[in-house]
Fold:
Amino acid sequence: MSLLSVTNLHAGYGQMTILKGVDMALDAGEIGVIVGPNGAGKSTMLKAIFGMLTISEGSISFDGADVTGIRPEKLAGHKIAFVPQEANVFASLTVQENLEMGAYSRRDAYDGIIDNVYELFPDLKNKRRQPAGELSGGQRQMVAFGRALMIEPKLILLDEPTAGLSPLFMSVIFDRVIAINRTGVTVAMVEQNAKQALAIAHKGFVLANGQNSYTGTGSELLANPDVARSFLGG
Ligand SMILES: Nc1ncnc2c1ncn2[C@@H]1O[C@H](COP(=O)(O)OP(=O)(O)OP(=O)(O)O)[C@@H](O)[C@H]1O
Ligand SMILES: [Mg+2]
Structure:
């Protein structure tokens, strides 16, 4: 059985339905990448999975539980973490304080988890006393990843983690996504850099107009001439 199953999902904003019957399934340990044109509903999809939108039809199951319509604060208990594209760190708090904020829902000791995060992102350890707002865009993205990892998620939802980054930092971020995934965390990631993202994806989902357009393994989608022509720039 899949770790995450999104079935026939309909969701949107107010009366406006954006997602019109989207399906997505990921097995434990996979990286799933969602690509598609601007306005396709990619961010809406992550927000709906994370309980931020009203779901009018369809269902979401995670790790054997029905989590359809469960609010974000409850989903931490189900070990789902979300890193939104914008405003994903507290700029005035230090790196260390940002990580501690990520653990606010925990009642147990988390020093060991902070150590694991610093092991995954050695740069952050050196900067742990610096306000996150003073870091580069790529480093801030790592703080956001680290903060999400503090709940020891089984699933991490990432919305365009490389947006606005230089090509060099982009590959560093993809590298870190692979490293997070290797620790056993399942990843669902939206990306504009579709070719690079599909290259590290176990499964790929092309969305267009709030519906599934193509679904396959990352390499199947990369090799599909229709996908390449319509969505990958030839
Ligand atoms: N908060 C909101 N309220 C109303 N409509 C919204 C809201 N957020 C997004 N939309 C609309 O929902 C549709 C899908 O938006 P969404 O942000 O999911 O697209 P996307 O695929 O993530 O695009 P992009 O590649 O530009 O990030 C768009 O038509 C957008 O205008
Ligand atoms: Mg988006």
